[in-house]
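S1.2 Input.
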Amino acid sequence: MAYVDGYVLPVPRRNIERYREMATLAGKIWREHGALEYRECVADDVKSGELTSFPQAVILKDDEVVIFSYIVYESRAHRDEVNAKVMADPRLADMMDPETLPFDGKRMFWGGFETLVEA
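S1.3 Output.
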């Protein structure tokens, strides 16, 4: 079954287009290096919860929106192989300066997941 990396981050609404440009290039790089799918999704129906929620997880500010992203691979080994190539790609390195990111990288979180159910 597939392996998935998931990401959640806050993006200021004024930076959505800059983020889209960055994510479009990142998606191209991941796909070129072997990722099966690359998706970047902007929150459309996400509310704060009583205990937990996407907005609470990223400490969402009034002028921000939550982005949920995921990348699909054949397996964890395939993910590790693809990510090694991606991290060595100079096109990605140019985008990763914390001072020029269109979002607050300190409030981003991510992780790798094994598929439990595939329907």
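S1.4 Remarks. The chain is about 30% helix and 25% strand.
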